[in-house]
Amino acid sequence: MNKLNKLKYAGLTCVLISLAGCKIPSVVQKAENKTTPEVFANSSNDTLNSAKKQWKSYFTDANLNSLIETALQNNQELNITMQELVIAQSEVRARKGEYLPFVNVGASVGVDKLGRYTNIGASEANTEIKPGTETPDPLQDYKIGAFATWEADIWGKLHNAKKAAVSRYLASVDGRNFVQTNLIAEISNSYYELLALDNQLDIVKQNIDIQTNALAIVKLQKEAARVTELAVRRFEAQVLKTRGMQFSIQQQITETENKINFMVGRFPQPIARDHKMFENLTPATVSAGIPSQLLENRPDIKKAEMELMAANLDIKVAKARFYPSVGISAGIGFQAFNAKYLLSTPESLLYNFAGDLVAPLINRNAIKASYISANAKQIQAVYNYERTIVNAYVEVANQLAKINNMKQSFDLKAQEVQALNQSVGISNDLFKSARADYMEVLLTQRDALESKFELIETKKSQMNAFVDIYRALGGGWN
């Protein structure tokens, strides 16, 4: 065995010894055994899950469903994500092609004129050749054939790279589903916000009428010397303040409409809606199922899982780079100095076959760096997977609590509004009979207005919880 071969075998031995100490960090194995709580807090262990419902069944407002359907076709972010799938799919095709043989077909034509005073030209000139049988000068060259190269994937490097690309493609699919889930939730929340603003605008307009009438009464009482100019100015200021609120709400309505139009993928235009039914909206009963169903329903969890699988495969690919690679090349074709002899067999037939074994020996820093980076990315993927699961559980728990708390808050707020509405009428009557001063009337009107606004906000929070629990459970993409 010559020195070069000895050196190669020694290098290969060093590589295998160094790899014997390569271990996957223990934190990676935690993800495989990741468990979730058996049930959500203050919830049963019923497996019925609202996330299984299609969004058309979950949301019953025809106007809202029309917006969602249009957005799923025209939303730019969703369409951008769709192209991510095409890119990921192409990557799978590229990785699959790498561990298949590369076969090419080619043809070439050339001419070669040797100089007489070159070593080859001089040797040919001094060779005795019979007349008419000399080597053609200039010498032409015609060649046609096929040749193939193939890297034998004995360590699974190329195969694992393809599987990693497949996992990333599946992660892209789940990423697209996650974008769709969030898009449906954002449009729904904005739609309910728009209905709430419409109702608040109606309340403001009603209060402007009430306060304007009260101002007229105060002016009459001033003429009768029952109140002073101060009372008139205070009532007038209250009317102006409420009118200012009207324009502020109108601006919010415009911005919310445009926000919805942007998500739907169109230029600003009025949003079709029936805001009068908002106060009577009652969120349907939501079934949260059990926490383990989040692993199947939540697209972001599935995406993180696919990314973790891809990172695990990247480790194998990086590790395989330490091993020798085996390459095979072969070719077959025809070659002749004259075109009429090109297909003559066997004289013009040529073929070749070769194999090579190459292993990294000196300066493997790039391979080591790639392996270390793959390990670090794998650990990142583990932590991201764990974080995504915990975040999903927290989101569901928060929304379940919010649904319950907002229901109770709305019931109490409705009673408060009813009591303050009665107080407004009573204060007006007492003021007319001089049994209450104008400040009591103003304060009662202000409290009644604020309570009505708060009631609308509570109803909006109720509907937001109804939307957000659907998103948190992983609904909207199936």
Automatic annotation (TrEMBL):
Species this chain originates from: Flavobacterium faecale
Superkingdom of origin organism: Bacteria
UniProt membrane topology term: Lipid-anchor
Alphabetic keyword roster: Lipoprotein, Membrane, Palmitate, Transmembrane, Transmembrane beta strand
InterPro entries: MdtP/NodT-like (IPR010131), OMP_efflux (IPR003423)
Family assignment from sequence similarity: Belongs to the outer membrane factor (OMF) (TC 1.B.17) family.
Lineage of producing organism: Bacteria, Pseudomonadati, Bacteroidota, Flavobacteriia, Flavobacteriales
GO cellular component, one term: plasma membrane
Subcellular location: Cell membrane
Stored Pfam families: OEP
Keyword Membrane in record: yes
GO molecular function, one term: efflux transmembrane transporter activity
Aminoacyl-tRNA synthetase keyword on record: no
The name this protein goes by in its record: RND transporter
